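Protocol step 4 of 6.
Sequence for Myosin motor domain-containing protein (Hypsizygus marmoreus) entered exactly as in the expression construct, tag removed. Do not edit the line below.
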Amino acid sequence: MIDRGHNEDAAVVRNLELLETVAEFLGVHSSALKAAISYKTKFVKKELCTVFLDPNGASDNRGDLAKTFYSLLFAWLNEHTNRPCAMTASPSISLMHRISRPFSSNLCNASSSTRYSWPPS
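Step 5 output, structure tokens:
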């Protein structure tokens, strides 16, 4: 049965120049980025199946990819922001402690007996 209310065509990248720019920023080939957005590959039982996505599916896939990038970016920022404090102070002083006390400029040199609470009072 075919649902006539939906577009039956596979998604197509309309702006190849933008695709190439984004792929260059991400450090991947434009064809790999195009495939990541336009196709969905899953294991079905013991076989690998690839589905050509319609424009709505490709849009959902693009959104999932963006969420993954933001998640990875936050994890990287959190790790690299906490690294200097881990070397000089108690491991309990982390990014969340810095956020809770944004005007305390000397958090990395705080003594290990200092405790911070959330939310700030």
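Step 6, annotate. DSSP finds four helices and two strands in the chain.
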